[in-house]
Design goal:
single chain, 8-stranded mixed β-sheet, two-stranded antiparallel sheet, 2 helices, 9% helix, globular, disordered N terminus, disordered C terminus
């Protein structure tokens, strides 16, 4: 049996912050979790208003990092439901309530760029992704990948990060 501690601090990484019970336990979580266990989790704002639920978790395959949670909001019985890509770092996992917190007013989400289940945006489009991160006032997750000793390699189409060998 492990010990439990409570934490309410925000991560400095591009990951989702965690609040609630944390510490050593007999199994995974909350720092490392099966993404499937998070699908269907409720999302609320700081005023405890219902913002929807997590429909999908999108992985940036090249970096191996979670890029977005796809949030469903509105509609009735699946009709008229709007989907939103939410930068992963804009979310806070509340382990005690088993839900996510997105610290935006409900109106901001209602006015956010969204999409429907048949017309997803090109999530790999850097301009779209940058605009989305700006809308939610969080740094793009790929910027955290770069450190002071890392530079972009202009020879690759994706501008992949490579170590600056002069820093050694």
């Amino acid at each position: 049996m492990g010990t439990r501690t409570t934490s309410t601090t925000r991560n400095t990484s591009a990951g989702a912050a965690i609040v609630g019970n944390r510490g050593t336990s007999d199994g995974p979580g909350p720092e490392v979790m099966d993404a499937a266990t998070l699908i269907g989790d409720a999302v609320v704002n700081a005023n405890d208003e219902d913002l929807g639920k997590v429909e999908a978790i999108m992985l940036d395959v090249q970096s191996g990092r979670i890029a977005y949670a796809v949030l469903s909001f509105g509609g009735f019985m699946g009709m008229g439901t709007k989907l939103f890509a939410i930068p992963w770092s804009a979310l806070t996992l509340d382990t005690e309530e088993k839900r996510f917190i997105l610290d935006v007013p409900k109106e901001k989400l209602e006015n956010a760029p969204g999409f429907d289940k048949d017309h997803w945006p090109a999530m790999a489009d850097q301009r779209w992704a940058t605009d989305l991160h700006t809308y939610y006032d969080v740094a793009p997750y790929w910027e955290d990948e770069l450190s002071a000793t890392t530079t972009r390699d202009p020879r690759t189409s994706a501008g992949a990060a490579t170590k600056d060998k002069t820093a050694y």
